[in-house]
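R.M. (postdoc): so does anyone remember the format we settled on? I'll just put the structure tokens first.
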């Protein structure tokens, strides 16, 4: 399960660029002094030396300027395990994974308030221990999820991530790894790559992903480009009924999206829609429902989202997407509007909108990269 939200820490984080992730990982578990300084140096990629300062990318800069304390900007990833990891081995494996991907070992560089741009400063070692173990209990996972949504890892400390081991049932054998990331610093794929490296170091299994697929609309869908979205004026979000009511920031809303059964992958192995497509659809349905409850007209929603032009795989540059694009989220059949904005959205209508949105985002990703904005 992945939850995206935001917390504003008066400091910023992230970067990507050449040499921002690790090299191949050996199929050996980490134990004792198995990974020494020579091994760490052998796997440290070129570039990104400790103390180096790197300007924020465009996506990071925008995210940093939008931070407010009332809107935590976090990514929340859960990994449910059938057993419990050894604390020392887990700390060692996760720490080595951070060193294999040195661009995650960074914090926002200090500077004067009137500086023109923010910068990341790379660190040789973590400023804080990112791994913690929570007391077991029936509400331990609920409290960890609340922390993931409300408490963002600070950008002033390296790394801007937190890995929490949660035992929901003291009498059980399983546990949950709750990974919380400051989204100004890096995105979900970057965090998953670091976590996969830690798992490989801990258990010795090869987690190297398959070679990336070509980003072309035809190879992804097997068909021609999708039909463009209807050229209609995008909807405006209705104002609150009580404009004078005290409020800070935009607030955080948590909503469930009734997903249909997982669809089969295409002939080229790609799914018809991604997690980001699900987030786009959930956001558009929330806007549509909000407007309906406030007697405001509905219509298509256009959402700005980051597009990732980085190569996938073990060497993915750690950071965020590389450019922003505007994605139209609208239904083709007018009859679907009533089904989608109902108190309980119709799963079949949600599935149609997900597939249509997936086609549109794939076409945008396959287009030649343009300016970052």
């Amino acid at each position: 399960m992945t939850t995206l939200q935001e917390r504003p820490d008066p400091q910023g984080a992230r970067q990507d660029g050449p040499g921002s992730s690790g090299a191949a990982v050996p199929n050996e578990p980490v134990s004792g002094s198995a990974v020494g300084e020579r091994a760490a140096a052998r796997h440290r990629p070129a570039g990104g030396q400790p103390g180096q300062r790197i300007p924020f990318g465009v996506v990071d800069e925008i995210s940093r300027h939008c931070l407010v304390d009332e809107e935590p900007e976090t990514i929340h990833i859960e990994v449910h395990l059938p057993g419990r990891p050894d604390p020392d081995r887990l700390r060692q494996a996760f720490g080595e994974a951070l060193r294999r991907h040195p661009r995650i070992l960074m914090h926002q560089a200090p500077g004067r308030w009137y500086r023109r741009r923010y910068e990341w400063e790379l660190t040789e070692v973590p400023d804080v221990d990112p791994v913690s173990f929570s007391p077991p209990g029936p509400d331990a996972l609920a409290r960890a999820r609340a922390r993931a949504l409300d408490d963002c890892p600070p950008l002033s400390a390296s790394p801007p991530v937190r890995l929490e081991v949660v035992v929901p049932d003291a009498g059980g054998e399983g546990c949950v790894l709750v990974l919380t990331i400051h989204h100004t610093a890096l995105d979900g794929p970057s965090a998953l790559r670091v976590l996969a490296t830690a798992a490989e170091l801990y258990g010795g299994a090869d987690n190297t992903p398959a070679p990336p697929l070509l980003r072309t609309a035809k190879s992804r869908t097997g068909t021609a480009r999708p039909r463009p979205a209807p050229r209609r004026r995008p909807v405006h979000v209705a104002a609150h009924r009580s404009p004078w009511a005290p409020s800070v920031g935009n607030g955080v809303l948590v909503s469930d999206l009734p997903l249909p059964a997982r669809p089969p992958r295409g002939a080229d192995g790609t799914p018809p829609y991604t997690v980001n497509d699900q987030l786009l659809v959930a956001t558009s349905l929330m806007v549509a429902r909000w407007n309906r409850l406030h007697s405001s007209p509905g219509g298509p929603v256009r959402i700005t989202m980051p597009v990732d032009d980085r190569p996938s795989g073990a060497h993915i540059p750690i950071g965020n997407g590389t450019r922003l694009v505007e994605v139209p989220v609208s239904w083709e059949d007018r009859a679907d509007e009533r089904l989608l904005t109902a108190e309980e959205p119709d799963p079949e209508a949600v599935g149609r909108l997900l597939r249509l949105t997936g086609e549109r985002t794939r076409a945008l990703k396959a287009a030649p990269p343009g300016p970052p904005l």
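R.M.: ...and that's the designed sequence above, right after the tokens. Also worth knowing: Confidence is low (pLDDT under 50) at residues 1-47, 212-224. The longest strand covers residues 73-81.
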